[in-house]
Amino acid sequence: MPARSRSRTSRSFAAVAVACACAITTAATGSAASPEPPGRSGRAEAVPAGAATSAVASVPAPTAIETLPDGRVVVLEQDGRVRLIVDGALRPAPALALGVCANAPERGLLGFTSDPDLVANGRVYLYYTRFAPGSPGGCVNRVSRFTMAGDVIDASSEVVLLDGISSVNGNHNGGDLDIGRDGHLYVSTGDAGRDPRGDSGSAGSNDAAQDLSLLNGKILRVDRTTGEGVPGNPLIAQGAVSCRVRGNTPATPSTPCAEIYAWGLRNPYRFAFDTNTGPQRFFVNDVGQGAREEVDDGILGADYGWNAREGSCPRGQQPPCAGPPPGITDPLTDYPRSVGTYITAGAFVPNGTWPAAYDGAYLFADGGTGKIFLRRADGGVDYAAPFATGAGVVADMTFVREPQGMSLWYTVAGETAGSVRRITFPWRAPAPSPPLSYAPLDSARRILDTRLAAAGAAPVVGGTTRHVVTGVDGSTTRAVLVSIAMVAPSSPGFVTAWAARAPMPPTANANAAAGEIVNNLAIVPVDELGGMLLFSYATSHLVVDLLGSFEAAPGAVTGGRFQALDPSRLADTREAVGPVNRYERRAGSPHPVVRVPVLGRAGVPTSGVASVVAVVTGISGAQQGGGFATATPAGAPWPGTANLNTAGSGDVRPNTVVVPVGADGSIDVHLYEVADVVVDVAGWFTSSAAPASTSGRFVSLPPTREADTRSGQGFGRFGAGDTRVLDPASVPADAAALAHNVAIVDNAGPGFLTPFPGGPRPFVAAGNVTAPGQIRAILTVTALSPSGTMSYYSYMPTDLVVDVTGWFQR
Question: pLDDT tens-digit profile of 418-454?
């Protein structure tokens, strides 16, 4: 697809986010030609039925692996090189070559994560072992922040956050990093294999994990800018002090450390946050000594018991054994050395991407046996039937979006060259729906609001998906009508919505600048369980309101059929009321209301109408702040939601609404900090009083890009006053109307866009910009010409992106 062929060799994160009105390129092509790395010959790798496994790249001694929001994949080499995999190919030049101490099997470049505001600030974080002459063991562990631009991490940008974490014995360095839902940096550290203070011993005698004045054997939580311990960390109230660079030696003071989040861990090599939920949730994989390996629940202030306990038993023992003493947190699951030898990587399965049985699941690997285990949503683990076997020495794992499906990528160390491999459940092939009729809800139902405390009050992390259960019956409902809002993204970005367990399309549903609130209507296919997926390029709060559903309609139906009109203006409050321009300003509670008569106007009949489809445009006054507008049936109270949001100071924002008509044949537009409103009608949905027919039934399509003038797809860039004509390949020539998301991109100045069926251009708009360089998207439902084409007029020079989500029968 043309949108996926643009080079990203020298881009900055900010440039990608601003320029992309679409989903960006995925990280891999999934080509069957990927070479098998040396050392894999003869290995029998077994994965579940329906899954496939293949090689991605050969990488020397790989440790950590992580995805960036734009789909590139970062892989660390133990000897200090940071590598990038882009479009399935390993870049030959490293993003960074860092001097590290890798003179022991567990030292070196160990951990990586990116900032949730990476698109805006370019920050990435590394955990590595550095040479420290004079320190016990000669090397210590460090956590630093760097700045990344394009495919290069600037070595001179290093800001040290934590330093002097003991590596006295060379092993048990821990080494993982991630950003929590609270926005803070989490770090896992091992117990150094020998007591850094020298007052206990080695192995099971080492009490460093219980020494709260040392950073070893802990989960740390620190400010990602300063490295200081975060208020709320459990020891701060006990007089804890900053230990972030004081070192861990026999002479280290005995005051507790403010950076500590949890303790009692032997070697928590990897941990993973669950991006499926709003509330913070993460699991810690802690390597046992000789008896049991464990997965722990990441809990503030938890003591996991090492060096007194190993797994769910006293150190060295096997079940049945004594339960934990007071104050000790036992693992979620653990296993003996007869099952595996040392636990390593872990990752939560992104809900809605693999078969439904994997929703809520956590995968974790045993590096000594090459097994990958599955912890189900109900907490059960079948150790006798691993998820995969023969995977090799798995060091880390993460999920990557690919054209063929959401894949589990993992690094395999200990081979001749090392490698990155994948396990994929291929996406099901998307297909157009059968004919559907629209069934509105009596009132909008909010199905996602990440701002709410019950939802964790945490935004969706940039570069991740969120599974949304719509509550519809997927056996009869094939698509839903929803309002999607991006709320205060941390950087410019977009959201894409599509059916669960289907390929992520190269399209977008909403675009927003940093800090904006942007709404857009969307028609989204759902899977057989009624699920949809959202991908957010930028870290952002998301709000989704369910407005109605599209139900199977194999024959003639009365209600729920769309009847298209040539776009026509019903009301413009900037102009005086007259025979054509009809509206009434009314006092309302809690907001003023503009009432607009609909029935019997602009081609809308006086009966058989359930709801009207219109573009409502809110116009802020020059002195107004941010506001919103909400369309309801005439006389209905404000429902507490919004159809569009304005940014104030003369901002102009349109959105399409599907709103039932009130008893008097009118609709109301409730206004807050919006000076004027414009209403343009595009058609209506029939009621049960209409005659039965097949005309106007809807066919839902997988979101399909039909035009992108940046790459010459469909037609070329608009000049001022230009009209372009699109003949959409995904729609039959006898279609009556098109559901298409249109995005203005890289505009040269203020202006508007008008989609229309051809012929004389109507005096309406379905896209507005108020300054150069904006990205503004809107779903429009527009009549097609008799030959099935769509015309687009642009007032200003601009690029345009057109994504089709379905069509209505003539």
Answer: 999 999 999 988 899 999 999 999 889 999 999 998 7
Can you give the pLDDT at residue 15? Answer: 33
Please state which of the ranges 142-151, 195-204, 342-351, 455-464 shows the lowest mean pLDDT.
Answer: 455-464
Rounded Cα distance, 545 and 211, in Å: 50
Q: Alpha-carbon Rg of the chain, whole angstroms?
A: 29
Put residue 179 in one of left, alpha, beta given phi > 0 → left and psi -120 to 50 → alpha. Answer: beta
Q: Classify domain 434-554 by CATH architecture.
A: Sandwich (2.60)
C-beta of residue 569 within 8 angstroms of C-beta of residue 577? no
Distance of CA 518 to the CA centre of its chain: 17
What DSSP letter does each residue of 580-630 carry, written as one string?
SS--EEE--SSS-EEEEE-TTSTT--SSSEEEEEEEEEEE--TT--SEEEE
415 touches 682 (CB < 8 A): no
369 and 393 Cβ atoms separated by less than 8 Å: no
Which residues touch 269 (CB under 8 Å, ≥6 apart)? Answer: 174, 175, 176, 188, 190, 285, 286, 287, 343, 344
pLDDT band at 248 (very low <50, low <70, confident <90, very high): confident
CB 219 within 8 A of CB 180: no
CB 627 within 8 A of CB 674: yes
Instruction: Look up tokens 């609404």; give the residue.
Output: 657
pLDDT greater than 60 at residue 158: yes
pLDDT average, residue stretch 100-111:
96
- Which pLDDT score is estimated for 454? 78
Query: 416 pLDDT band (50/70/90 cuts)?
Result: low
Segments of 268-322 assigned E as strands: 270-273, 282-286, 292-297, 309-310, 313-314
Rounded Cα distance, 419 and 127, in Å = 21
pTM for the predicted model, two decimal places:
0.91
Share of the chain above pLDDT 90, in %: 90
Tell me how many degrees the CA angle 775-776-777 measures, rounded to the nearest 5. 125
The token pair at 349 is: 């399965």
Find out whether 304 and 287 touch, Cβ atoms under 8 Å: no
Residue 495 makes CB contacts below 8 A (sequence gap 6+) with: 484, 486, 508, 509, 510, 534, 535, 536, 537, 540, 542
Q: Give the pLDDT band (50/70/90) at residue 35.
A: very low
What number is the average pLDDT over the span 630-651?
95
Same fold, 562-686 and 702-810: yes
Q: Please tell me whether residue 14 adopts helix, strand or coil conformation.
A: helix
Q: Say which CATH architecture domain 702-810 belongs to.
A: Sandwich (2.60)
Find all residues with CB under 8 Å of 714, minimum gap 6, and list them: 706, 707, 708, 724, 726, 802
Q: How many helices (H) and strands (E) does the chain have?
A: 2, 51
DSSP 238-272: GT-B--TTT--STT---SPBTTEEEE--S---EEE
Determine which helix (DSSP H) or strand (DSSP E) holds 520, and give its type and residue range.
strand 517-525
Rounded CA separation 200/196 (Å)? 9
Q: Measured on CA atoms in the order 155, 158, 164, 167, is the torsion positive or negative?
A: negative
- pLDDT for the residue 457: 84
Q: What is the DSSP letter of 198?
A: S
pLDDT range class, residue 20, cuts 50, 70, 90: very low
State the DSSP code for 574: T
Mean of pLDDT values over 548-564: 97
For the segment 148-168, the average pLDDT, to the nearest whole number, is: 98
Q: Confirm if 64 and 110 have CB atoms less than 8 A apart.
A: yes
Number of Cβ within a 10 Å radius of residue 408: 27
**Domain range annotation of the chain:** 434-554, 562-686, 702-810
Output the pLDDT for position 43.
Answer: 56
| Adjacency order of strands within the sheet including 123-131 | 109-114, 123-131, 139-149, 152-166
Please give the CATH number for the structural domain made up of 562-686.
2.60.120
Contact 683, 808 (CB under 8 A): no
